[in-house]
Amino acid sequence: MRLLQGPKRTWLAGLTALALLALWAWINLPVSEVLRGSTRVAALPALPAFTAGQRVLLLSPHPDDETLCCAGLIQQATQAGTAVYIAWMTAGDGFEFDAALTQKVLLPRAQNMRRLGNTRAAEARAAATVLGVPAAHTFMLGYPDGGLFRLFTTNYDQPYTAPHTRANRVYAQGALSPGRPFTGRNLEADISRVLDDVRPDLVLAPAPQDFHPDHHTLSYIALRLMSQRAQQGRLRYWVVHGGLEWPLPKALHESLPLTLPPLARQLPWLRADLTPEQERVKLQAVNTYRTQTEVMGRFMRAFVRRNELLSPDPLPPTGSPRQP
């Protein structure tokens, strides 16, 4: 058998490289999935409009989640005369690479992580202002980033020491309960205090299918607290960490729809269409999180799409068919 030589060999190598490039593009820019996703999103029922006099509370695990999931919804609510409130569970102080990059240190220490937490808390308040939420309607609880599941389980009563900040109590500037030990009982007490103060008609919380442990743990806590009040029907659910690489394609694509998150595709989603102006303001709020966009700007800006999604239920309907 004679080996390929000269031009034929070069032609075959070029064809192979082209095929590999096409495969990479198919994996990373799944046109077929976007087309299928557009059809599915277009067929979703529209989210009922917000009304004047309503009170909406958004429970956000970290600074930026409220913007990624719901910046358009927040604008629509405030424009309708709905009072919007935001409560951040953590100050987002657990991302070491973020601290290293933004503070230009090789090995971030506890004080660097606490500085990151206070910076992200300030960014959160600035983003809320961009979205039309007054400072008096925001609550920074300041519990440990990455530690909510520990508070929900083994550290419900025993104080938890966060490995990144070495803190065992709330330190974030402007926190609702400064100095309160990191326990699940205290976290629930602070959330209950917010619920008592706001008396929300709707509570927007992460769905249980959201992959991030802080997110799905907050979902469990919200379900428990609202069930204790016989108000679980007031919960609405969103997803930020919805599956590998979602949302695709990465980066800013305002003309594309936000497709259904793979990990929660079976939920009974409702669609909220955004105007170009609402998309513009959402992008402005995303860019307010400079600490985050320096590290993962392509992921964050990928949420600036022509719609957002909410589910009225935390689980798929019983017997719902599995979609590919």
TrEMBL record:
Signal peptide: none
Domain of life: Bacteria
Matches recorded under InterPro entries: GlcNAc_PI_deacetylase-related (IPR003737), LmbE-like_dom_sf (IPR024078)
Designated name of the protein: PIG-L domain-containing protein
Organism: Deinococcus radiotolerans
